[in-house]
Each structure stands twice: as C-alpha cells, then as structure tokens.
Amino acid sequence: MFNKLLLTTALVCTAGSVMAADIGGEITTEIKENAAGDWGATTSFDLGIASMGTAVPAFAAIDLDMNTDGDIELDEWQVGTVVNGDAMISFGDQGNVWIDSEDGSTLADPAMKESIAVKALGAQMAFSWKDIEADVTDIETVAGMYEMNLGYVFLQAAGSYNMDTEEFAIGSRSDYLLDDNIGLGAAVTYDSGSEDIGFEVDAGAYGATVFVNGDQDEMLQNVGGSYTYGFAGIELEAGASYNLDSEELKPTAAVSFNF
Fold it and tell me: How far apart are the first and last CA of the chain?
C-alpha cells in the first residue's frame, strides 16, 4: 500500500504584529484496484492555515509521500506571497500550469519541475528549470494559462513549450453552468510530441458526474462517472471508469473528513 501524506501550511507575515488565523484541513482515504489486482488504499492529510485581517500573507506547502516501509519523501513543495490582494508569486516543485479535467487519461498533461509562477487577473505564467541544482540559468519549460468568466460560461486556455525538445502542448476547456447544481464541460488538447489530439466531455448534476473521452483515432475510449455526498463534515464518493478497448472496469471509493 502506498500512502500519501499531504501537509499544507500557510504562513502569515505581518509588519510588527501577529494576526489571528483560521485553521482547517481534510483527511481522505481512497480505495481502488491496483495493477496487481489487489484493492489498495491511499490516505492523504491536508492541513491549512490562513491569515485573518488585512496583512499581506505569505504561504508554503509541502507534499509528503509515505511508502510501505514508513519512509517519507518530499514530493512537491511551494512557497510564495500574495501582492495587492489579487496577484500571487510562488516558487517550488508545484505541478504544472494546465487546464482542468474530470478523468484526463486521453488529454495532454505536460510535466514541470521546479518553477517560478505568477498569477494575476485570471492569467498564469510559469518558468520551469531543467535541473535547478545544476544550472539556475537553464530554463526548460515555459507555460501559461488564461481563465475567464463570460456569464454562465467559464473558459480556460493553456499552452506549454519545452525549450530543449522544441515540443509544445496546447489545451482549452469550457464549462457551462445551467445553475448552481448542473453543469456541462468539454476539453481538448494537442501534443506536438505525440501528435495526439485528446478530447473529454463531462456533465455534473447534484453530486453526480459522468464523462467520456478519447482521441483523434478513437473518439470513445473511456466512459465513467462518480457520485459525491456530503454531510456533517464528511464527504463520501463512489465512482468507476470503463475502458472500451480493454473492457476493463475500474471502480473507486473515497471518504473525506473535513475539520
């Protein structure tokens, strides 16, 4: 069993005074079938501290992985600050800058290592190093994304360029919200390295979500869905995905406790 321990801590910097803080977190256990055909559980612990008042906050996050031997390794980390209340600058091994997806198995998903990222007014920009310990001047990947709301429509457009391989990926997603409980979404990506165009369409209503995805060679590869129910700080989720080629069904279940 591979357990992931996620610890997120927001640090508050103030000018000569200590501000009050809100503390919250979530513990999630997900159960699904692994490659060996056994049912394994992955547990994550998420803790956050947010400042109160008008002070400019700084924040930090660490993502720790715990293996079956009890060894803990640092997976992802991030430090940053918020400027003028609406701009964010962060540095770390903090994932990529990319569009959202429900399943994402047929979509491009460009990787990034340590990076510095800037986010403001719906736009994000990130520069990722090839190996920051070896050469701080060797930028490998440049990525950006823009998000915007147009009434009931939410749009995302993103691009990523690898300066070493000269390969790029682009993606876009649109979501249409019929009301607070019903929504439709669609995403498309292109990866120049694999020359693959991926698609995904999803719909959600009152806690239930369904999706279908594929690529230019086979429009329907996977179908699936999930249902989430929350009560008294507890969130239960059950779902499954089905691969139409391999005829493989992958059910999952998860329970989250919020505090």
Answer: 25
